[in-house]
Design brief:
It is built from ten helices and 70 strands. The protein has about 1000 residues and is an alpha+beta fold.
C-alpha cells in the first residue's frame, strides 16, 4: 500500500520529469520579490470566502463571494447584493466572466445568471431558457458565443434566450463546472467527467483512477497548448494525447491560472498555493504568504498583479523588481539566525562582491547572505560601519569608535588615533587615482599613502570636521561633503571655490557626478543641489521632490537618478532634472517607491557611505531599516491610474442618472459626486483634481479624496470634470466629465423674475398715478379753495360793501332830511358792516353763516328780500311753493347766497321796478328763480365775450357743486331770469357727508 507521504514523493518525481510550460526567458523569481497585500472583511469585503475574480476593461476588479458581489477600484469596495440589486436573486457568486464587449456575466448559486452592462443588472432564469439556477462556469468562445455551465445542463445564449446544448444530438446530459476552448476552437467542458465538444457531438475523455479523478473543477490550456485539468483527485496534464496525473498531497484543486511569464499557479483546497516555475514546484501556505490555505480563485489583472481568493480574504501578489534580503520565514539567507535588518551601508567591490554592513559584515553570494568570518578572533567584536576594497585588493573596514582595519592576504592591521588616524569613527572611504586612500571620519579627513596618515581639519580648509561623503570627480578633483558644507581638494590641497559659498552650512550627505560632469549633492534637510559650470541649482519639495532628506544618489543605465530618503526611494530622469534647471519645465516628474507605493521599501538609512551601490549587473542596492533592498530598475514599473470614472451622483439625496445629460429636480442645491480611477497596483498614489464648470473658477486639488461636495448650488447648466494623476509624476489620465442641468424653483426662473419686474413696474406706475392723482387732487383742492374764497368774498364782502355803499349814498342825498332818518340809515350801514365782517370771517374758515342758523329757507329769503328793499327802495318779493323740506345747511347757505347775488345783480344793473325770488319745492328737486323786469341784456353775446362775470360764475359753481343746473335767461328790455335747479337726491347725499364741521375738515384734509 502506498502511503500519502510516498504518494507525495512520487508526485514530485513525476513533476520533475514533466516538461513544464515555462518560457526559456522566464526569470527565476522568489516569492519575496512579490509585494503582498491582503483585504478582509474589515477592509470592506462582504465575505472572506472569495469564489470568483475578474476585471472589466475600465479597470475595476470584480470579486464574487458567498455574500455578494464586490467591485474594487483599489481603494474601496462597492457591494452589490439582493438588498440593493433586485436582479441578484442569490448573493453567493460562483462564476464571473467578462466578454469581448466588456459585458460582465455573473453566475450565482441558485439565482441564475446576471448580466451587468452600462451600469444595469439584468437577470436570466427559467423564463429566458436557463432551467437550472446553479451557474458554475461561464465562457465566451472566439466566435462570440456565450456558454454557461450549470448543475444540470450546458447552455448557449442566442439573442436574449438560452438554448440547451446537452441531452441531445450526441451530447449527453452534463453537470458543468468548467469550460474552456483550445487552439483548435474545440470546447472542453468538465463536471462529472471531461468532455470535448466538436462537430455537434461530444466525446468523453476518461482521466482514469478513482471516481474523484472524474470530478472536474477547472480546465486551462496554457501558452504551449497543454491542457490542464484540475479534479478532486489532483491535477492532470493532457499533451499530445498523453494524460499525466500529478498528485500533490491528495489536494482538491480549486483553480488554475497562467501568468504573463508562463508560470502556472494552482490553488488547493486546504493546501495553499503552488507555483510551477521552470519545472520547479513551490508551495506557499498561511500565514507566511496566504491569509488562508483554501484557495478558490486565481486571476492576473491588466497590470500583471496576481489576485488570490482564499477562504480568509483576498491576496494581491505584485512583482515589484524589488527584493528585501533579511531573515524571513521560507527564505534561505545564510547559515545563522542573525536578523539582517537596520543595514547601514552596502558596497560592491572591484570583483563584483556585494558587502553589507549593519554592525556586522556580510557578503552576498547568489540569493544567500553569507556572514564574513575572516576577521581575526581579536577583531570579532568590531562595530562595523562601512567597508572598502582598494586597488591592491586590501579590504578596509570602518568602525564606530575602533578606527579602521586593513585586511590583506594572510594579514590584518588595525589603525587608530595612536597610529595617526584623525578620528576613530569612520564614515566614508575613497581612493584617488594616485592610489592614496581618503578616510572620512567624525573629526576630519585622513589620507593614507601606504606608509602613514596625513590629517586634514578645518585649519587646512575643510568646511567642517564631520565628514559624510568623499567622491573623486572625472577630472581628479576630490569632493568632500560635510555637515557644514562642501570642500574641494585639488592636487592634494583644499582650494576655495566661490560657487561653494552658497553651500556653506549645508549638511552634504551624498555626492554623485553624472556622465556630463554635473555634480549632484544630496543634503540632510535641504533637498538636492546641482552644480554645473559654477552654477548651482536647488531642488526641494517645492518642485515636487518627495523628501528634502537625501542619503544616497545612484544612476541607472537609462539615465535615471535614484535617491534614498527616510520616506523611501524615488527617482527622476536626468533629462527632466536638467530641464527644470534650464527653466524648460517647472515641476519634477518624480516616481516614489515606498511601503505606500506598492513596493516593499521602508525608510532608507543614511549618514554613512556608501549608503547604496549600483552594481555591474545594473542592480541598485540600498540599506534600509527593514534590510538590504535590491532593485532591478529594468523590471520596476510605475503604476499609473487608469481613466478617471464618475461612479455616482447624488442631488439633494436622490440618485442621478449618469447615462446621458440629466436634469436634476429643484431642491436645496446639495450635490455629491463620487469619482474614482481604478488602480490596483498602488491606489494610494492616485491623486485627483476636479472642476465644476459654471460654478468653480479654478481646479480643485482633492488629493486622495474621491468625492466632491457642493452646497447652495444655484440653478443652471454645469459640466463636472475630473482628472486622475499619479502623485509622483506629471502625467495625467484622460478626464471624465458629466453634464447636467440643475432645475430652478418657479421663483428662480426668468419668467418669474420677469413677472416680478413687470409687477414692480406696475406698482411704480400705480404709485406714480396715485401720486399724480393726489397732486392733481391737491391742486384741484387749492384751485377750488381759491374759487370758493373768491365766491365768498364776492358774495359776502363785496355784496356787503355794495350794501353799505348804497346806504351811504342814500345818506348823502338826505341833505334836508330829519336827523332821525339819517341816524337810522347810519345804523343800518353799521349793522351791514358788522354783518359783512362776520360773513367774511365765516367765509374764510368755511363756516356756516351765523345769520342762517336755525332758520328755514323760506323765512331766510323773506329777510333777504326786506333787507334789499330797505337798501334800494325797489320792491323785492319772495314766494315759496310746495311743502316744506329740511335742507342741509350748506345747501340752504348756497341757495341764499345765489339768491342774494342774483337779486343784487338785478338791483345794481337792470334798474328793475320789481324783483321776485321764487323757490319751488317738489319731492325730487327744488328750483330757485330770481326774476326782474329790468332792462335785461344779451346773454349769448356777453357770455361769449371776454367779460368778467364773477357773480354769475360764482353762482354757477355753487349750484354745480350741489349737483344742480344753473341757467341765466335774459333779453334786451325784457328783464332777466336766473334759474337754479337742484335734485333732492344730490342734496341728500351732500347732507349725509357734510352735516358736521368735523366731516368738512376731514374732507378738506383728505383732498
Amino acid at each position: 500500500m502506498v502511503t500519502p507521504t510516498y504518494r507525495y514523493l512520487i508526485g514530485l518525481m513525476l513533476i520533475a520529469l514533466v516538461p513544464w510550460p515555462a518560457r526559456a526567458s522566464t526569470p527565476m523569481r522568489s516569492i519575496w520579490e512579490y509585494d503582498r497585500h491582503v483585504w478582509q472583511l474589515p477592509d470592506g469585503l462582504p465575505e472572506g470566502i472569495i469564489q470568483a475574480i475578474t476585471q472589466t476593461q475600465e479597470g475595476y476588479l470584480w470579486i464574487g463571494t458567498r455574500n455578494g458581489l464586490a467591485r474594487f477600484d483599489g481603494f474601496r469596495f462597492v457591494v452589490f447584493d439582493h438588498t440593493n440589486t433586485p436582479a441578484l436573486h442569490d448573493d453567493s457568486i460562483l462564476a464571473l466572466c467578462r466578454t469581448a464587449h466588456d459585458v460582465l456575466w455573473i453566475g450565482t448559486e441558485g439565482g441564475g445568471l446576471v448580466r451587468y452592462s452600462n451600469g444595469s443588472f439584468d437577470s436570466f432564469r427559467a423564463p429566458q431558457g436557463l432551467t437550472n439556477g446553479f451557474v458554475r462556469a461561464i465562457h465566451e468562445d472566439r466566435r462570440g458565443n456565450l456558454l454557461v455551465g450549470t448543475d444540470d445542463g450546458l447552455f448557449r445564449l442566442s439573442g436574449d434566450q438560452f438554448v440547451r446544448l446537452d441531452g441531445k444530438g450526441g451530447i449527453p446530459p452534463m453537470s458543468v463546472h468548467a469550460i474552456t476552448e483550445d487552439e483548435q476552437g474545440r470546447t472542453w467542458a468538465g463536471g462529472w467527467g471531461l468532455f470535448v465538444l466538436e462537430n455537434g457531438g461530444a466525446k468523453r475523455i476518461p482521466l482514469g483512477g478513482s471516481t474523484a479523478s472524474e470530478e472536474v473543477k477547472s480546465i486551462l490550456q496554457s501558452a504551449d497548448h497543454t491542457l490542464w485539468v484540475g479534479t478532486v483527485a489532483g491535477l492532470y496534464r493532457l499533451k499530445n494525447g498523453v494524460i499525466t496525473h500529478i498528485p500533490v498531497n491528495s489536494a482538491i484543486e480549486a483553480n488554475i491560472c497562467e501568468d504573463h511569464t508562463g508560470n502556472l499557479w494552482v490553488g488547493w483546497v486546504g493546501s495553499g498555493l503552488s507555483r510551477f516555475q521552470n519545472g520547479k514546484l513551490d508551495t506557499y501556505r498561511a500565514p507566511a504568504v496566504l491569509p488562508g490555505n483554501t484557495v478558490l480563485s486565481i486571476f492576473e489583472d491588466f497590470d500583471q498583479n496576481l489576485w488570490v481568493g482564499t477562504d480568509n480574504g483576498l491576496l494581491r501578489l505584485s512583482y515589484t523588481g524589488v527584493s528585501i534580503l533579511q531573515s524571513r520565514s521560507g527564505q534561505a539567507l545564510g547559515n545563522d539566525s542573525t536578523i539582517y535588518e537596520n543595514v547601514g551601508t552596502i558596497y560592491e567591490d572591484r570583483q563584483g562582491t556585494v558587502w553589507i554592513a549593519n554592525g556586522h559584515l556580510y557578503h552576498v553570494s547568489g540569493q544567500l547572505i553569507v556572514p564574513f568570518t575572516e576577521l581575526p578572533s581579536k577583531m570579532t567584536d568590531l562595530k562595523i560601519r562601512t567597508v572598502f576594497k582598494d586597488s591592491h585588493g586590501v579590504l578596509w573596514i570602518g568602525t564606530g569608535g575602533q578606527g579602521v582595519v586593513a585586511l590583506g592576504k594572510g594579514w590584518a592591521q588595525q589603525y587608530t588615533e595612536k597610529e595617526g588616524l584623525v578620528n576613530e569613527f569612520i564614515r566614508a572611504f575613497c581612493e584617488d587615482r594616485h592610489g592614496n586612500l581618503r578616510i572620512g571620519t567624525d573629526g576630519g579627513v585622513a589620507r593614507w599613502d601606504g606608509k602613514r596618515f596625513e590629517d586634514f581639519k578645518t585649519s587646512e580648509g575643510l568646511a567642517y570636521l564631520s565628514v559624510r561623503a568623499i567622491v573623486e570627480g572625472k577630472n581628479g578633483n576630490l569632493w568632500v561633503g560635510t555637515d557644514g558644507g562642501l570642500s574641494l581638494i585639488h592636487n592634494g590641497v583644499f582650494v576655495p571655490d566661490p560657487s561653494l559659498d552658497k553651500l556653506r552650512g549645508e549638511r552634504i550627505w551624498a555626492i554623485h557626478e553624472d556622465a556630463h560632469g554635473a555634480l549632484w549633492l544630496g543634503t540632510r534637510g535641504d533637498g538636492l543641489f546641482r552644480l554645473k559650470d559654477g552654477k548651482l541649482w536647488h531642488y526641494t519639495t517645492q518642485y515636487r521632490l518627495p523628501n528634502d532628506n537625501i542619503y544616497q544618489i545612484l544612476e541607472d543605465r537609462r539615465g535615471n537618478l535614484w535617491m534614498s530618503s527616510p520616506g523611501g526611494i524615488f527617482r527622476d530622469s536626468l533629462q527632466n532634472l536638467n530641464e527644470v534647471a534650464a527653466g524648460a519645465t517647472t515641476d519634477l516628474a518624480v516616481t516614489a517607491y515606498g511601503t505606500s507605493g506598492g513596493l516593499p521599501i521602508g525608510a532608507a538609512n543614511g549618514g554613512l557611505q556608501p549608503a547604496g551601490t549600483s552594481t555591474r549587473s545594473g542592480e541598485l542596492w540600498f540599506p534600509t531599516f527593514r534590510g538590504a533592498i535590491r532593485i532591478q530598475p529594468d523590471e520596476v514599473q510605475s503604476s499609473h491610474p487608469r481613466l478617471a470614472l464618475i461612479e455616482k451622483v447624488i442631488g439633494d439625496g436622490r440618485d442621478v442618472l449618469l447615462k446621458a445629460p440629466d436634469t436634476i429636480r429643484p431642491g436645496d442645491g446639495r450635490l455629491e459626486i463620487y469619482y474614482t480611477a481604478p488602480s490596483l497596483q498602488a491606489p494610494e498614489r492616485t491623486r485627483f483634481k476636479y472642476l465644476l464648470e459654471g460654478f468653480d473658477r479654478q481646479w480643485t486639488y482633492a488629493g486622495e479624496r474621491r468625492v466632491a461636495y457642493y452646497t447652495n448650488l444655484p440653478p443652471g447648466h454645469y459640466q463636472f470634470r475630473v482628472v486622475a494623476y499619479d502623485a509622483d509624476s506629471l502625467g495625467e489620465s484622460p478626464e471624465a466629465d458629466f453634464s447636467f442641468t440643475w432645475s430652478a424653483h418657479f421663483y428662480q426662473t426668468f419668467w418669474f423674475y420677469g413677472l416680478c419686474g413687470l409687477g414692480l413696474v406696475m406698482m411704480v406706475w400705480a404709485a406714480f398715478r396715485i401720486h399724480l392723482r393726489q397732486t392733481h387732487s391737491r391742486y384741484a383742492a387749492i384751485v377750488a379753495e381759491r374759487a370758493r374764497l373768491a365766491r365768498e368774498m364776492h358774495d359776502t364782502v363785496i355784496q356787503g360793501c355794495v350794501g353799505v355803499s348804497t346806504l351811504l349814498e342814500a345818506i348823502a342825498g338826505f341833505e334836508h332830511s330829519s336827523p332821525e332818518l339819517i341816524l337810522e340809515f347810519v345804523e343800518r350801514a353799521r349793522t351791514q358792516i358788522r354783518q359783512t365782517l362776520n360773513e367774511a370771517r365765516e367765509a374764510v374758515w368755511d363756516l356756516r353763516h351765523s345769520w342762517l342758523e336755525g332758520a328755514e329757507i323760506g323765512p331766510a329769503l323773506s329777510r333777504l328780500a326786506r333787507q334789499l328793499e330797505s337798501e334800494t327802495g325797489v320792491s323785492v318779493e319772495t314766494e315759496v311753493v310746495g311743502p316744506p323740506s329740511p335742507l342741509a345747511p350748506q345747501v340752504k347757505s348756497n341757495l341764499l347766497l345765489v339768491a342774494r347775488e342774483a337779486a343784487r345783480n338785478s338791483l345794481a344793473h337792470a334798474n328793475p321796478r320789481n324783483v321776485l325770488i321764487r323757490l319751488s319745492l317738489a319731492t325730487d328737486q327744488l328750483c330757485l328763480e330770481v326774476t326782474d323786469d329790468g332792462c335785461g341784456f344779451d346773454a349769448e353775446s356777453d357770455f361769449s365775450s371776454q367779460k368778467k362775470h364773477y357773480g354769475i360764475v360764482g353762482m354757477r359753481e355753487r349750484i354745480e357743486q350741489l349737483g344742480g343746473d344753473f341757467r341765466v335767461l335774459s333779453r334786451m328790455n325784457e328783464g332777466t331770469r336766473v334759474i337754479a335747479t337742484i335734485p333732492l337726491g344730490s342734496q341728500r347725499t351732500f347732507k349725509r357727508f357734510e352735516t358736521s364741521d368735523e366731516a368738512l375738515e376731514h374732507s378738506r384734509s383728505s383732498g
